[in-house]
Design goal:
The protein has 25 helices and seven strands. By secondary structure, the protein is mostly helical. The protein folds into two domains: 7-389, no CATH class; 394-491, no CATH class. Strand 1 and strand 2 (75-76) form a beta hairpin. The protein starts with 6 loop residues before the first helix and ends with a strand. Mean pLDDT is 84; it is low at 443-452.
Length: 493
């Protein structure tokens, strides 16, 4: 072997990489409704609001095209909901359609990442290999089947660092400001990354560009600021629920935040086990494959030596700012709240991957390990992951509600039934806003003193309580569905 891969060798290897990437993309669109199973309440809240926006222009609370969407205990960010409502102009509301929106966003992210990688490396095979790393990444793979937020702005910032033309920088500012509306952590991270960009590129920016950038950023955030004025605490509602300051004394908060922050850079979190929260981190799968570790390390070293370059300064700023939103909350480390750590980690690793093609032995070894890790993960994801994920995605509740949609009403559900599942119920029935109030099941807590009488209709019970139901009810009702958690009875007297 020579010390460097020849062009005649790279060309067929690129074809194999393209084929492998195509197979991974096919897998990302396969069995969207069964892995993960169920349809957890946050998904249903997003899906139902997208449905009502698509059909009436109103959210579930009858607000016209809101900036943020009120949900149980928090306000949902709008970008995903409005993009999902566009897809509902073409497809009927369903769990598959909802998750297809995520899969399409994930595909778009792979395309944009490939363009960014090619812009940074000017090397097609490196860009292709880096995209395969991202496509097979366990976190990115899962989130593209549940929810997904996309980072567009790094591409434009790098273009500015190459050309010094103001347009790419303004596009960076616009996309960064728009990311404020994508998910809760971005409400803190977007302003922080904007200030980091101003600091990093300060010597390259004319005062007029800095002033105009601040103006653009503030103008795009104006709807959010006005919304916060009219709905005090709305933008911080999700943070307040999980905040370190809410759950711990002020004297202990700094130490907890520092420990939380450091936990996001532990090898266990980055390369071994993730955060073990199965809604956004498949069990025993971490932020990065071990195969990527040396290239991530080389990339960090490369950018540390290139601190004189503004883009390298900003990229390291971005990497080390990424865990901050998660560090301020009690559940730490947290994959979803530190999701940008994954994105910036992949961008940084590009410089390490570019050097991979200089040594055939290292290249072939890397491909073998990446293929093994990818195949093992994808096999696990479709064969083993659905079972432990059931409880995380409200699988038994969703299957029970789906069965209930096939039975006549009125409907009677116990008050201890998860409040967010009423939205799941409305979504599964594609309930129009005009009949929304009449379609919510009656809030009835079942106790022995309540029986009889019973009205005709469909009753949902927790399975452990079914054995204690009144004999008169059991004699008259028909059990139409049951699972380990819930059972359904239909009464027609």
């Amino acid at each position: 072997m020579t010390n460097q891969l020849s062009r005649s060798t790279i060309r067929p290897l690129s074809l194999y990489l393209i084929l492998f990437l195509a197979l991974v993309i096919f897998a990302r669109f396969t069995l969207l409704t069964t892995s993960p199973p169920g349809f957890y309440v946050d998904e249903a809240s997003i899906a139902y609001n997208a449905y009502t926006i698509a059909t009436t222009g109103l959210d579930e609370h009858h607000c016209s095209f809101p900036v943020f969407f009120q949900a149980f205990g928090e306000f949902k960010s709008p970008l995903y909901i409005y993009s999902h409502s566009l897809l509902l102009q073409l497809l009927p509301p369903s769990i598959l359609t909802s998750r297809l929106t995520s899969a399409l966003w994930g595909l778009a992210a792979l395309g944009i990442f490939f363009l960014l990688a090619h812009t940074l490396t000017h090397h097609f095979p490196t860009s292709l290999l880096a995209t395969i790393f991202l496509a097979t990444n366990p976190i990115h793979f899962l989130l593209s089947r549940v929810t997904f937020e996309i980072f567009l702005f790094s591409f434009f910032l790098y273009r500015f660092s190459c050309t010094r033309r103001p347009l790419p920088f303004f596009l960076f500012v616009i996309t960064l400001a728009l990311s404020f509306y994508s998910y809760s952590s971005a409400k803190l991270l977007a302003p922080a990354l904007f200030l980091a960009a101003i600091i990093s590129f300060f010597s390259s920016l004319r005062p007029q560009i800095i002033a105009l950038s601040f103006l653009i950023f503030i103008l795009i955030l104006t709807p959010a600021i006005r919304f916060e004025i009219h709905h005090p605490g709305a933008l911080s509602s999700h943070y307040h629920i999980h905040s370190v300051f809410t759950h711990h004394p002020l004297s202990k908060a700094p130490q907890i935040i520092l420990e939380n922050y450091a936990s996001h850079f532990s090898p266990s979190f980055l390369f071994s086990f993730g955060d073990q929260h199965l809604r956004h981190s498949p069990a025993f799968h971490s932020i990065f494959f071990w195969t990527l570790a040396p290239f991530l390390f080389l990339g960090i070293i490369y950018h540390l030596f290139k601190l004189s370059k503004p883009f390298s300064r900003w990229l390291l700023f971005a990497l080390f700012l990424s865990p901050l939103p998660a560090a301020l909350t009690i559940q730490s480390p947290h994959t979803l709240r530190s999701y940008s750590l994954l994105i910036f980690g992949f961008i940084i690793s590009l410089n390490g991957l570019r050097r991979l093609f200089r040594t055939p032995q290292i290249f072939i070894t890397t491909i073998i390990f990446l293929a093994l890790e990818s195949i093992l993960f994808i096999h696990y994801f479709f064969s083993a992951f659905p079972e432990p994920a059931q409880i995380w995605f409200d699988t038994t509740a969703v299957s029970t509600l789906t069965a209930a949609t096939q039975v006549p009403g009125p409907y009677f559900f116990p008050s201890r039934f998860h409040p967010g599942l009423s939205t799941t119920w409305l979504f599964l029935r594609s309930t129009p806003l005009t009949t929304q109030t009449n379609s919510v099941p009656q809030d009835t807590t079942y106790r022995s003193s309540y029986y009889p009488p019973f009205a005709n209709g469909t009753y949902l019970f927790a399975t452990p309580t079914c054995s204690s139901l009144a004999p008169t009810f059991l004699a008259s009702a028909t059990r139409i569905y049951h699972n380990p958690d819930y059972c359904l009875y239909y009464l027609a007297q």
